[in-house]
User: Fold these one by one.
Assistant:
Number 1:
Amino acid sequence: MNPFNITKLRVLYSPFLPHVNYRCPKYLRIKPNVKCPYLGFSVDLLNIIAARLNLTIVPTLDHSIPGETDYGANINGKIVGILENVVNGTVDTIAMTYTNDHRFNSHFAFSRPVFFAAGRVLAIRQKEDFSGYFSFFKSYQQTAWIGIAVSLIVQCLFSVFVASAETKLRKKNPTHWSEVVWRMTRLQLLQPQTCQSTLVSGKLSILIFSLAQCAVIMGVLSSYLLSHIIKPSNPVQFSNLKEMVIAMKENRVHIIETHRTRVESEIKGIGKTLGINMTKVAGYNPIRISKNTKEALAMLREPGSVIIRYDDEDMYYQAVEDCDVITKEEVLPLTQSSFIFNKGFPLLPAINRVIREETLEIRRLQNKYKRNFKEKISCKAPAPQKTGKRTIKHI
């Protein structure tokens, strides 16, 4: 029950995973069915709060394109984005959670924390393209390959000299030098089936050479197979934000963002503690600003590019659908976020009471969306699509 006889809760729904599942058929949907069991974390939780307080939800739909939602910012003291709808009283709250920090706490009131998000660094697994086919050369050091080449050249020159001397001594028809070189090269590449030598020393040298050749070839093939079996190392070469700022200074890491204010102030603060002038760094390695999520993920394919996201943000859920995207955890600290209201909203104490009493249900919802829903949409290895005349449909 609520003590103010308020019967409606006006909520703005914006296409933003995992809070509002805009992929449901007939979006917006605020009641689950068989085709859409995952309404969204905030949709489910606001439904619970409304039911406990006998409130009717009055939905307002944000028609922005998924991935282009301006979820709000504080620009020189002015609130912009979808948060303007709360400021001007169009809605009471938004089906999305916000961090209670200096950007917003002077303008809004926050509920008790409802979502605990883990930070992720997103990067692309760089492909070697055509050069990957020559990776087997890396099985031996460069000096070893140079030694093998020099040895082959010396053997070829010596064979040409011996063939020339043999021609003069035995008065045989002269053999062209290219044919002699070809025979030696062929011997290097192909194992002889028989030891065609009348001398014991010749047979022994061929045997030793064959064993050495087998060792080289097996080493090359093993390295080639292992290079395709072993998972490549994570392209994110830093373990915390301080190391990231140092990597930015060295131009090894490039930050991609959709809103400059999101990470710029934090990066400048870390740079100041390290004695790094980030304004100077921005002159040659600025934060790359994209127009939307699609463009940001495309920019991520540039070597050294990373995106910083928490697992309560739409871009993170879109990124994990790409099989080339690698995520690194434990770089950013855990953060907690809450529903946002205008200051003095009369139902906030009652909403906080419901949130406190529904702690176990909130944890279940977090597992539902941070684990089950994420696994449902994450990239999976392709499987056979057809067996006979029967088509297998992947959910």
Number 2:
Amino acid sequence: MVTEKAAYIGTSNWSADYFQRTAGSALVLQPAGSAPPPGTEPTLRAQLQASFDRDWGSPRARGAPQRDCGGDT
């Protein structure tokens, strides 16, 4: 997950029993201080954001089918 200020790399399994029965790990990346000086490499958070934006807008990306989550299945 990438926000305006940080990146989170960890498990996608956020169910209650997962937290009760396993020892997962995560990494939160957040730059200390201000933005990097001009001409330097982008932060890892910025690189992750760029990768997500590239993949999200790719001509190969397709939307997931709509599902009715309420009512009878």
